[in-house]
């Protein structure tokens, strides 16, 4: 994919390095001259400009990008970049960083955001996930589709132990997408047996999250 990242601070550069390792094309757009450091991410294309300027995005050929990531430390900037990318250039996927959790409600499809990533909320969710066995933990929200990535770790006394995946009657608008077991990543098939300690990752709407919890307790 061709990916544009607005903001070349520590977060933007880290994202760029990960994407480059996965063989994607990356362009970093940075307004502050002090943050322009091509030697830190040599394989990326660097653009010294303001990503909130329409002309900048036109010159950078944002329209050809598969994904735009608004990764600055300013929520206002991230919203403007997201809106321009989606409405003016019809970028298929727009991901935005949320710095202040109080602003999360703004990061939706009205501002062109497909996926909003709140670092404080994600860190809190990961802490919960590490200690919460049997509880449903929301890890990520996909704003455009109003769906969430949620995780449940099966407890030692789970009634599902030894039962096949197909025996779990999940509600409509939900799907089990992966099972994490030890160091393994398992794409679930109907005949796969569940085990205590399995981490189950679901994509589901908010409305059916409690129904998922109930289905796993039967």
UniProtKB/TrEMBL annotation:
Residues 137-218 form the RCK C-terminal domain. Residues 1-117 form the RCK N-terminal domain. Pfam families: TrkA_C, TrkA_N. Keywords: Ion transport, Transport. PROSITE patterns: RCK_C, RCK_N. This is TrkA family potassium uptake protein.
């Amino acid at each position: 994919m061709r990916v544009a990242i607005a903001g070349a601070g520590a977060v933007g550069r880290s994202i760029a390095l990960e994407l480059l390792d996965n063989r994607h094309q990356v362009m970093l757009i940075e307004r502050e001259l002090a943050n322009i450091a091509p030697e830190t991410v040599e394989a990326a294309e660097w653009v010294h400009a303001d990503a909130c300027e329409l002309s900048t995005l036109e010159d950078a050929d944002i329209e050809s990008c598969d994904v735009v990531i608004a990764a600055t430390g300013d929520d206002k900037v991230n919203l403007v970049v997201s809106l321009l990318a989606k409405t003016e250039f019809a970028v298929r996927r727009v991901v935005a960083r949320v710095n202040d959790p109080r602003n999360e409600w703004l990061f939706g499809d009205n501002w062109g955001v497909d996926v909003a990533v709140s670092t404080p909320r994600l860190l809190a969710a990961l802490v919960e996930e590490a200690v919460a066995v049997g509880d449903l933990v929301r890890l990520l929200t996909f704003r455009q589709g109003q769906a969430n990535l949620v995780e449940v770790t099966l407890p030692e006394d789970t009634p599902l132990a030894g039962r096949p995946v197909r025996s779990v009657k999940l509600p409509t608008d939900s799907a089990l997408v992966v099972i994490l077991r030890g160091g393994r990543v398992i794409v679930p098939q109907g005949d796969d047996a569940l085990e205590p300690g399995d981490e189950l990752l679901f994509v589901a709407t908010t409305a059916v999250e409690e129904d998922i919890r109930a289905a796993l307790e039967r």
